[in-house]
Design a protein that fits this description.
By secondary structure, the chain is of the alpha/beta class. The protein is built from five helices and seven strands. Helix 3 packs across helix 4.
Amino acid sequence: MVCSKFYLRLPLSTRYYTKAMHNLIRTVTSDSPEQTEAIGAQIGAKLRGGETIELISDLGGGKTTLVHGLASGLGSSDAVASPSFTISRQYQAGKLTMYHFDFYRLTEPGIMANELAEILPDPQAIIVIEWGTIVENVLPGERLTIRLESPAESERKITLSCPAKLSYLLPKEG
């Protein structure tokens, strides 16, 4: 009971960390775009379909580079590009489709929330979302959240958080 009272008193800015308290967390460091892409490829190779991945970082934080790796690891030969201006892109890999959404330019979810809600139950779909706070109420609670931070110009601290059900996606430690 005390724990739930504490949870309710937390400010909104701690939403990620509160959610993460119930998740497995792994942190890795990347010293180059190639390393960030390789981390994405390692995760992408483990994707089965039905997963949702939320990417969190500042502009230029390495999200698209990570998605390059995800698509490559999944086995897609499609050209990966940022969906900043198109809002969404799709990458095919055998029977699986990776949907990549970037909601940075949206001020309200509108029809995109409906489109996302239609795709989420598809077991052949992998959903990757950037700037997902606008569709927070549609996102499944069981998702892999990847936070990319830049402590130095060429360095990325990549923190992955997910429920035990998705622990197979986490990169190996060490």
